[in-house]
Write a structure and sequence with these properties.
- With 288 residues, the protein is α/β, with parallel strands linked by helices.
- 38% of the residues lie in helices and 15% in strands.
- The chain has ten helices and ten strands.
- The strands form two sheets. The chain has a seven-stranded mixed sheet with strand order 1-2-3-4-5-7-10, sandwiched between helices. Strands 6-8-9 form a three-stranded mixed sheet.
- Strand 2 and strand 3 form a beta hairpin.
- It starts with a strand and ends in a 29-residue tail after the last helix.
- 38% of the residues are buried.
Length: 288
């Protein structure tokens, strides 16, 4: 299944992998407001589709994304937003926050330049795979501008405050090996093998994990890991575990293990997510 966009492509294969691909290769996939809107739409569509299990975020061309498209010599912003109540959303955050709120795992496959928005929109992905030629840069200080995509929140959680300060204060470019050593990317691959590696990982998640379990685990990590004590997590753990006796996914997981066969988990996302979870009612007002 494919859908038409003008700055990205969107395709879902029979295995349940949705691939969302930046598609402005002649402009080095320069980030625009239109691209932000299309990414937000495609990602939400994948998250709402029960047939989709995993999303791969990729890019056509030599570069993943060179940052904001400045070909017109100006930023695409709302000058009145500085005095507003925050209703206007800066473009990179429209992608990174959509990924953050998703119930499906997202794998980012990054080659060439991933600078500015190209670096910030991938921070909320569950996995970041890089080609050996990938170059990253949070270059805001070198342009007289400010971090975007909630990157000042995500980046220190991935690489630690010291590395985040180095990369953001200096605005310097760094390569795939430094990114991997710091924990920004999970693995580095030859450029010609990057997308295959990302899709292989996606297929492994589809084949061996339960969609509802993955969705709950993902939200638990984001919602609970910042708590000052483990008490709230323990309460939620207890209620989740107490419900296992009536959980079809748990029954299938145990049965398939004992019978030494692949599992076929019946639960689907978002339909079968536990409605009582405290964040379940925290609906993103833009998620329509």
């Amino acid at each position: 299944m494919t859908s038409r966009y003008s700055t990205i492509t969107y395709e879902v294969d029979r295995s349940g992998i949705a691939q969302v691909t930046l598609n402005r290769p002649d402009a080095r996939n320069g980030y625009t407001v239109k691209m932000a809107r299309e990414l937000e739409h495609a990602l939400k569509r994948a998250d709402d589709d029960e047939l989709v299990r995993v999303v791969v975020l990729a890019a056509n061309g030599k570069d993943f994304c060179c940052g904001a498209d400045l070909s017109d010599g100006a930023f695409e912003v709302d000058p009145s937003a500085g005095a507003s109540d925050g209703e206007w959303q800066e473009p990179a955050g429209r992608c990174s926050m959509t990924v953050y709120r998703m119930s499906k795992p997202v794998i980012a496959a990054v080659q060439g330049a991933a600078v500015g928005a190209g670096a910030t929109i991938i921070l909320s992905a569950d996995y970041r795979l890089a080609a050996s030629d990938a170059r990253f840069g949070f270059v805001f200080s070198r342009r007289g501008i400010y971090p975007e995509g909630a990157s000042a929140w995500f980046l220190p959680r991935l690489v630690g405050m010291g590395t985040a300060l180095d990369w953001m204060v200096s605005g310097r470019l760094f390569g795939a090996d430094e990114a991997k050593n710091a924990g920004l990317v999970h693995s580095v691959h030859p450029a010609g093998e990057l997308l295959s590696a990302a899709r292989e990982l996606a297929h492994d998640l589809v084949a061996h994990t339960a969609p509802v379990s993955v969705a709950v685990v993902r939200r638990m990590l984001y919602e609970l890991s910042g708590d000052p004590t483990p008490d709230r997590t323990r309460v939620i753990d207890s209620r989740l575990v107490a419900g296992l006796a009536e959980n079809p996914d748990a029954f299938e997981g145990v049965s398939s293990f004992l019978e030494k066969r692949p599992a076929d988990f019946p639960g689907r996302v978002p339909h079968d997510l536990p409605a009582w979870l405290p964040w379940h009612s925290q609906v993103d007002p833009t998620h329509t």
